[in-house]
Amino acid sequence: RRVHGLYLQNAAFCAVSRARCCPEFISNISQTADTSCVCSMPSISDVATQDLSTMEKHYIAYLDNPDTDGWEIRKLANDIQGGNEIPDPQVLCAFFRACRRVNDYALAIRVLEATKFKCGGQVKQFWPYIMGQLKPTMDELGILSLEEMGYDKPELYLEDVFDMH
Questions:
Q1: Which residue has the higher pLDDT, 54 or 163?
Q2: Start-end of H helices in 22-122
Q3: Using an 8 Å Cβ cutoff, are 15 and 21 in contact?
């Protein structure tokens, strides 16, 4: 059941992002006699078979749109982090640019932390590659890495009492 919900959610997201980024999408909408809106939207099976690169292009176009506000950026961050995939570095760069545009530094750090957490047990394999791809954009926008801020270590770390002596 959850899988079908995600497909519907992705279909709705595609429709919203397509309407914002592609003026020809809006021109395909026609009013019928019963005033219900008919448009050329992908079916659930189309979204289910849609490859990741197409969704990433939609995400990047959505985030690069200057009309996308902070709430929509947070919603998209939550949706992407709720999936099973680690976001592509290009999508993360688009997130950082969108966060800078709406002046939300905390969200940029939250997305960075969540991405590192999604690497799981393979963090030593994936994280250096991801940071290598993100570092130029982060430097350009003035966003510090987790290691530069000290967020890679626990804040209230105390030595174990059994290891003190």
A1: 54
A2: 23-27, 44-49, 52-64, 70-81, 89-101, 105-118
A3: no
Q: Which helix (H) or strand (E) segment is 37 a member of?
A: strand 37-38
pLDDT band, very low/low/confident/very high, at 152 (cuts 50, 70, 90): confident
Closest listed residue to residue 107, CA positions, set 95, 94, 120? 95
Report pLDDT digits (tens) over 30-57.
443 443 344 344 444 444 446 767 888 9
108 Cβ neighbours under 8 A, 6+ residues apart: 95, 96, 99, 100, 141, 143
- CB-CB contact of 64 with 99 (8 Å): no
Choose among 113, 119, 120, 121: nearest CA to 147: 113
Positive/negative CA dihedral, 24, 26, 5, 44: negative
What is d(CA 140, CA 62) in angstroms, rounded to the nearest whole number?
21
Distance CA 105, CA 132 (A): 20
Contact 15, 26 (CB under 8 A): no
Q: Looking at per-residue confidence, does 42 or 131 come out higher?
A: 131
Identify the CA nearest to 99 among candidates 69, 132, 127: 69
Separation CA 17–CA 5 (nearest Å): 18
Residue 8: strand, helix, or coil: helix
